Amino acid sequence: MRRSLLGNEGMDVPCGDCDGCCVSGYSVQLRPEDHRAAARIPATFVVSAPGFAKGHLTVRPLPSGVCPMLDGGKCSIYADRPQTCLDYDCRIFAAAGIDAGGEDKAVINKRVREWRFSYPEPLDLKEHEAVRAAAAFIRDRRDSFTVRVPAGPMGIAVFAIKAYTVFLDPHFTSGSDTDIARAIIDGVRRFDSGTLA
What we know:
Oligomer: single chain
Low-confidence stretches: none
Strand order of the largest sheet: 1-3-2
Helix content: 40-55%
Number of helices: 9
Radius of gyration: 18 Å
Mean pLDDT: 90
């Protein structure tokens, strides 16, 4: 998951017949390099969105919350879907111990609660516990941060995945909430600069 957040490799998610991300009101970012997807998505569904980088567009969901490219419960452009779809992994919510959102995300939330993780090594369990601790801290102690941090479930989960190592270090976890918040922001910045550690 951390490698996917750093680049364009996507995730190999065993979705089975789950279409939660396709029916939950998500807009789908369409990047300039998503040529094949852009060629197959009708222009009526594609809009520019504030805050996106130049050349990046978004595919709006239908009023029902369903992706316009979903046809008969299947993605009609699956082989050519955008990188955003390749990157989406609802296991990030399960890893962080949070739901994907409210009632509009009911299908995803059901799937999130079904995921189970295995821990081949004791460190794997400790890392998972650290991700959950980071997510809980970001969600519950927002006033400890001196900068704006994500408030939505996806942003919280991504921040937790990027900065969970803070909660493996007893030096930080025994510090003040302000120190922990600062360490989380530093961890996210290090991650975003291309360092996995």
